[in-house]
Amino acid sequence: MATQGASGVERLVRAALLPVCVAAGVVVVSGFFFPWIVGGVVSGRGWLVVSLLFFGSGLAYLALLPLDDPAADADGRPGAPYLLRVRHVAWRNWASGFLARQDPITFGVPVLVFAAFFAVRLAAPTATTAAVTAAGDVLFGEFAPLFVVATFLAVCYAFFLLVGPWGAIKLGGPDAEPTYTYPTYFAMVFTAGIAAGIVFWGPAESLFHYGSPPPAADVAPRSDAAVVVALSYAFFHWGVSAWSAYLVLGVPIAYFTYRHGAPLRVSTVLAPFLGVDGLDGYAARTVDVLAVFATIGGVATSVAIVGRQFLAGVGFQWGVGFGGVGALLFVAGLVVIYGVSAESGVQRGIRRIAGVNLLLFVLFAALLLAVGPRGFVLDTGTAALGRYAADFVPMSLRGGGEWAAEWTVWNWSWWFSWAPFAGLFLAALSKGRRVRTVVFTGVVATSAASVCWHLLLGGTALGLQHSGRVDALGAVATNAGAEAVVAFPVFAALPLSRLLMFLFLALIVVFIVTSADTSTLVVSILATERGHAPTTGSIVFWGVLQGCVAGAVLLVGGGESLQTAAVATGGPFALLSVLSLVGLTRTFRRHERGHPTLLNRAAVALVATPLGRFVPFDREN
Predict the structure, then answer these.
(1) What whole-number distance in Å separates Cα of residue 396 and Cα of residue 398?
(2) What does the alpha-carbon distance between residue 570 and residue 152 come to, in Å, rounded to a whole number?
(3) What's the rounded Cα separation, in Å, for the pair 5 and 13?
(4) Cα–Cα distance between 242 and 190 in angstroms, integer?
(5) pTM for the full model?
(6) What DSSP state is assigned to residue 262?
(7) What confidence tens digit (pLDDT) does each residue in 294-330 have?
């Protein structure tokens, strides 16, 4: 049995982190809940530093706690479990170990692309913005049917896998066992794929749709009918359609990795067409390069936007100004936190912080349900769920018009641009599980959590806005459209407002960490030569690169342009998802016959009960 985290250096780091966390925590809690104790001793930037020390030292300490890992001794062969581990080398050998194992194409091309983008942006900012905007307008306008069809097809395929015979396929063979408990599996899948966007947009998206409803709904802005429409579209954009985008890449990667010996790569979805031995060619490399660019671009811009929005919300609530230095300081703190988590590996930092994230998520939701307008939330939520279910197909097939391009098509492209790293991570965690369990977790359970979040936060925000108790939309208008400020006037109108705000800010930090640490690990795997696990140097490089891209967005500008460029990669991956489903279906039809459907399994279970004599079921078949 091996013990991870038993080195002398890690013991010293843990010994230093704990008192820092306790001391910073005392200051943060005192300043937050009992401001008269601290008074004006700590400045605005001082609060930011102390808060980052509190969250960062606490999460880093959790990530670095030792772990007795019996699997570490037996699992020394190449494959997904091995590749998810980080090869820890002495700090003197970080550079040499890192450079010796990098794939020159999947490593070099994305780095050069990012350098070229910011160089061009610095030299010709107006032209760069205009060019990227024009390309985005064409993609989200002219190619809207691609996203609409790909997303709806993903939902239909996920439903078929859930109830059909192929759902019974066990990834890794009949004797394979899951690596993680189900709660841990769900926590990592959910928190890796959602980021801090769900925290900001939970109260904000419904309010935006309430103030400007979709034209197809034909309801007046800020009317009673607009409340239900607004909430139903929030469910739509964060529900089964969104999460299915991850699944249609994750399941093919998992199947070909665990059943056919393909590498843990996004390009593995091309195995039915290229063969496993053909995945070293330029077509497969192109897919992996695009995956690295989409992941770094998407997550880095998210880190930058989260930093800006986080500070905008804090500034709105407490009147504290931070400026560009504050945003850079926030991003630097995040880089350290998610870098430590990624370097500690899935079994330690990523798993533990995902668990903390989910606990905070549930605690916040329960607290909001207890103090919020429950009657309005439940009544409106029930009506919105009914509308969502009844109008799901028309909503799914509606992609024309400016509103749909700016909201629905943009959202589908954003989810598809995150699908490479989220889908690969889903695949890596799914060994030993049946395809049906993967679908249930990756689509049904995650969508249910997202919908519940929007029901509670969006319903509460709508209830307070519609009743006139708060003017959250007015706060957004006076703060340059920053959606982060929506939550603060909403919470201020509720009991236990300070506790809600504290948990809300904590969730922002933890959610972005759980996505950024996973993306860092996934990109490190993609950029490392096939068959080798990433090293500490690789984790440090890609983690810092994400932070540098986020910092460049804040300093040089071009956040919207880079975000649009990253989201635009959702187009190729939407097309690739359709191709992957064609290849997966062909393979399933050829190699996976004779599996029971969900109905067959239910019938077998029913036959074993006293009601079985009423079931016309042939036990032989």
Answers:
(1) 6
(2) 15
(3) 11
(4) 12
(5) 0.91
(6) -
(7) 888 888 888 887 777 777 767 766 666 666 777 788 8
